[in-house]
Amino acid sequence: MLLQRDGIELGRNTIHRILLRHGRVHPEDRHEPAVERFERSAPNELWQMDFKGPKLWHQKVGPLSVIDDHSRYLIVLQAVASTHTEQVREPLVAAFGEHGVPEAMLMDHGTPWWSVHSAGGMTKLSLWLMRQGIALHWSRVRHPQTQGKVERFHGELQRALARRRVLVPDAQVWLDQFRWEHNHVRPHEALDMQTAASRWRPSARRYDANPPRWEYPAGARVLKVDSQGKLTLAGKNWSISDALAGEWVQVMQLEERLQVYYCTTLIREIDLGIQRSTMVDRWIPNQPV
């Protein structure tokens, strides 16, 4: 694809022999194509976010990656010193300011966007994202393929780190250059050998540094979570989340089930039939494409 752009025509087999001769084909690069792929229908419907593992990186925490599910456009590739909220929020604020705000984001059960010490897993960072009207989804536990696109990108990044020298003082410069290459130069097989940039466009949803209280739809049933993180529903107190104490949520009834939303994110489901309150499986993939 890159050669064709420069007017150079070579057969696939010829290119493969050249790469073999120079040791550029590695066993880990040889893989069977996916039987079916899942992707959102347009840019910014879903961004996937994760930290790369620290292997071959000079810090205990690998770079933070945010990738668009539809286009594979790499929105963030940032070296961070830790997983503390402010270390992650800073590059996200920059990304939202430059690219707009997505409709939804998908992440795993790692810090700083998930906490085992908080009912419902809510953290300061996840609440901050929800207040922007971003619907949050978390992947299934021990199910990394749910975040397949960001995981595949981290494999690509890992191989690049193994083959190219990265000078520690220039690590972010290296990441910026690699991000440009991924977005604007490298053809992607899943995109019919087009670049990610050719499928990408910024979001029209703008970032608000001081968002007002979330406006739920007219006529919606809206209740305030008490100081202990509970709601009184059907004559019983239900634990929702300590992190939502004092916040307003929407309650929707589906037969004997009550769904509790904070902004646009479904955070709790209450089954009145069996008197049970549970977290929900928030990740439902699209149809195969």
Question: Can you describe this structure?
Answer:
With 289 residues, the chain is an alpha+beta fold. The protein has three domains: 1-30, no CATH class; 35-199, 2-Layer Sandwich (Nucleotidyltransferase, domain 5), CATH 3.30.420; 221-278, no CATH class. It has six helices and twelve strands. It has helices at 2-5, 12-21, 85-99, 124-130, 148-163, 171-185, and strands spanning 47-51, 64-68, 74-78, 104-107, 135-138, 221-224, 230-233, 236-239, 248-254, 257-262, 265-271, 276-278. The strands form three sheets. A five-stranded mixed β-sheet has the order 3-2-1-4-5, with helices on both faces. Strands 6-9-10-11-12 form a five-stranded antiparallel β-sheet, with no helix packed on it. It starts with a helix and ends in an 11-residue tail after the last strand.
Topology of helices and strands:
Layout: H1 2-5, H2 12-21, E1 47-51, E2 64-68, E3 74-78, H3 85-99, E4 104-107, H4 124-130, E5 135-138, H5 148-163, H6 171-185, E6 221-224, E7 230-233, E8 236-239, E9 248-254, E10 257-262, E11 265-271, E12 276-278
Q: Main attributes?
A:
289 residues; alpha+beta; Nucleotidyltransferase, domain 5; 3 domains; 5-stranded mixed beta sheet; 5-stranded antiparallel beta sheet; 20% strand
